[in-house]
Amino acid sequence: MIYPDNRWKHAWDGFILFAVTFAAIEVPLRLVFGYTAKGWIFVADSLLAAIFLVDVVLQFYTVQSEQGRLIVDRSEVRRRYMKSWFVPDFLAALPFDLIFLLAGPLGLPALLAQRISRLVRMVRVLRLFHLAGILRTIQRQSTLHPGLLRMSILAYWILMAAHWVSCGWLAIVGSTGDPLLDYLNALYWCLTTIATVGYGDITPDRTNAVQLIYTMAVMVLGVGVYGYLIGNIATMIANLDVARAHHQEKMEQVTAFMRYRNIPPRLQSRIRNYYNYLWESRRGYDELSVITDLPDSLKADVVIHLNMEILEKVPIFRGSSNEFIRELVVELRPVVYTPGDYVFRRGELGERMYFVSKGRVEILTVDDIEIKATLGEGDFFGEMALLFHQPRTASARAAEYCDLYYLDRSTFDRVLRRYPEFKKKVVAFAEERSSRPHDAVAEGHASDV
């Protein structure tokens, strides 16, 4: 069975999209101008029939999805396909031009065979509506910007509808003998009518009821399409960069609050710098709020991906079991400190252990003037206060913008109880740290000290 997420299935769907689009363009043109398939058109038509036939076979082996449930039973897949799109897909796979060539030897009148062939060939256009499911799948699974993708799909359908309307107009008014010029004039009339421009240089015959009715129907269609198109374009443009719009809205709220509460200018500058750093480093998103609705297993996979860099940097995580990593990584909480911010001060009760993902943290002396050690990416600190249940013995200050992760006391204690090997690593680091000279490192681990 072929699963929907198979990369070859995605490539085949893209190929079918191209083939069906070609059929949806070429079939109406042949019906309008009445030309016979010769040369490359005959080859292309025969190739399309072969492609559609292969696709019919593949549909019997393609896993279907219903409300998130995968239908993998082959008999059930076949039954569902036979009841839905099998008949139009099979008719679309018939080699109409070969049938037309065999009409003579079979005794079927050529004119009748040609008319039947043209009529049945329209079934291939129905595959375009079957293609709507593929476009929805592409829209759900694509990594492109959702707004741009929606705009592209909308443009695709509008251009296709304009082509059909133009061919319909040609079928009504007839041809002058120049197919290219006739089609361009029909397309020009279609676009001016749908766009509600209506220059009036190409108009229906006032004595021809069919042309009048068709024109009025296209006008009504054009009003709806034009309004729908303008509304969607406006919405898409507004949502092209949702993150930036959200950031700007947040900054307006923060600015209004600081003015209302008379926050000192220096503190206002630090607050703005903090939000600007969040925008530059993570596009203003709060990672936890984005994934909070995910189930625990999926959330763990996402968090592991997001925190893989810090897991690889911290020495005490190396060689740990997958179970330990999955449980611990979900409990890590990100926090950002701006230059000069104190992560904690000497004498405070220790409630968190910190891991440095980006930036530098300074461990200060007792008087908070001199720097005892500088911690960088992959270093951790603050565990001794949690391990020995004692106040902080030194202050930690951000030397620059710092992305840190922390474990709170309850999580730290629970992890130590459940994973003795992790406790041994932490205790070993703590004993090594406590055995160093007092001016080497205070509550921190730095490989360069």
From TrEMBL:
GO cellular component: membrane
Membrane topology field: Multi-pass membrane protein
Compartment(s) of residence: Membrane
Pfam families registered for this protein in UniProt: cNMP_binding, Ion_trans
Domain of life: Bacteria
InterPro entries: CNG_cation_channel, cNMP-bd_CS, cNMP-bd_dom, cNMP-bd_dom_sf, Ion_trans_dom, K_chnl_volt-dep_EAG/ELK/ERG, RmlC-like_jellyroll
PROSITE patterns, sorted: CNMP_BINDING_2, CNMP_BINDING_3
Membrane-spanning intervals of the chain: 12-33, 39-63, 84-104, 147-171, 183-200, 212-231
Lineage of producing organism: Bacteria, Pseudomonadati, Spirochaetota, Spirochaetia, Leptospirales
Keyword Transmembrane: yes
Predominant cellular place of this UniProt entry's protein: membrane
Protein name: Putative transcriptional regulator, Crp/Fnr family
UniProt xrefs under SUPFAM superfamilies: cAMP-binding domain-like, Voltage-gated potassium channels
Entry's Gene Ontology molecular function annotations: intracellularly cyclic nucleotide-activated monoatomic cation channel activity; protein-containing complex binding; voltage-gated potassium channel activity
The keyword Transferase appears for this protein: no
Residues of the Cyclic nucleotide-binding domain: 316-433
Keyword list, A-Z: Ion channel, Ion transport, Ligand-gated ion channel, Membrane, Transmembrane, Transmembrane helix, Transport
